[in-house]
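Anyone up for a design puzzle?
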C-alpha cells in the first residue's frame, strides 16, 4: 500500500503540476446548510465543531452537511444537492426542513486538489423558525452554538474557532443583515461561481489563487465571488 504524501508534499506537487508526486482524488458532491435565526444580538448562524477523529476537517467549525448519497438524486444536480441538504440537517441536528424549496443556494466551493478527500459543496441558507432548536444527534460534532456571523469571524480571527476558507467566506456573505428574511433575499442575489483554491508557484514562492471552475478563470477580484474586496483565503 502506497503511503500518502504529507500535506506539504501534496501542496508542492500540485503547485508544480507533478501528477507523479500526487494524483488528486475524485470529487464527491456535497451540500451544507447555514441555519439562521433572529437572535437578541442580531441574525445568528448555527455552527458545529467537528470531532478530532474525523478524517476530513477535524476540529473545524462547520455548518451541518455532508455528501450527496445515491438515494438523494443524481450527483451534481439541484435535486441531489437539496435532498442531501435536508437529509444531512436532519441526521446531524434532528431538525426536519419541511420545504426543500425554502433552501436558498448562495455559494459553491470545491476542496483543493491537495486534500485526500474532496467535495464539490453547494451552500444553502434557510431560516429556523422561533422556538425550533436543532440539537446534535450524530457523532461527527462535539458541540454546537448559535453566533452572529460577525462574532464567529472575530472568534476565528482570534484563533479560538478554527474554520476552513469556505466557511469563513460564507460567514462574510451572511454578515451585515438586520433580520433573516433580508439575509435570505440578499444572499439569493449573490454570484455563485464554483470556487476552488489552487496552490501555484510564483518565482518559486508558493501562493494560492482562487479559481472559478465553471468559467475556467482565476479570480483576481474577490467581489466577483460576492465577497468583500479585502477578503483573503489566509492560506499563504
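Challenge accepted. My sequence:
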Amino acid at each position: 500500500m502506497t503511503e500518502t504524501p504529507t500535506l506539504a508534499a501534496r501542496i508542492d506537487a500540485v503547485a508544480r503540476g507533478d501528477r507523479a508526486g500526487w494524483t488528486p482524488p475524485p470529487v464527491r458532491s456535497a451540500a451544507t446548510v447555514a441555519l439562521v435565526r433572529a437572535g437578541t444580538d442580531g441574525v445568528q448562524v448555527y455552527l458545529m465543531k467537528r470531532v478530532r477523529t474525523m478524517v476530513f476537517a477535524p476540529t473545524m467549525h462547520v455548518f451541518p452537511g455532508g455528501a450527496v448519497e445515491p438515494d438523494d438524486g443524481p450527483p451534481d444536480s439541484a435535486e441531489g444537492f437539496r435532498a442531501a441538504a435536508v437529509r444531512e440537517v436532519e441526521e446531524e441536528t434532528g431538525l426536519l426542513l419541511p420545504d426543500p424549496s425554502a433552501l436558498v443556494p448562495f455559494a459553491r466551493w470545491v476542496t483543493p486538489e491537495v486534500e485526500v478527500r474532496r467535495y464539490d459543496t453547494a451552500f444553502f441558507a434557510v431560516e429556523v423558525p422561533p422556538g425550533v432548536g436543532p440539537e446534535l444527534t450524530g457523532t461527527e460534532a462535539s458541540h454546537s452554538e448559535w453566533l452572529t456571523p460577525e462574532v464567529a469571524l472575530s472568534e476565528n480571527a482570534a484563533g479560538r474557532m478554527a474554520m476552513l476558507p469556505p466557511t469563513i467566506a460564507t460567514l462574510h456573505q451572511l454578515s451585515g443583515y438586520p433580520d433573516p428574511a433580508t439575509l435570505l433575499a440578499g444572499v439569493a442575489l449573490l454570484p455563485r461561481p464554483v470556487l476552488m483554491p489552487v496552490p501555484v508557484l510564483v518565482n518559486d514562492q508558493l501562493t494560492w489563487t482562487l479559481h472559478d471552475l465553471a468559467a475556467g478563470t482565476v479570480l483576481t477580484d474577490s467581489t466577483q465571488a460576492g465577497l468583500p474586496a479585502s477578503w483573503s483565503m489566509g492560506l499563504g
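A detail worth pointing out: Strands lie at 27-39, 42-50, 61-62, 65-67, 104-110, 118-127, 141-147, 194-202, 205-212, 217-219.
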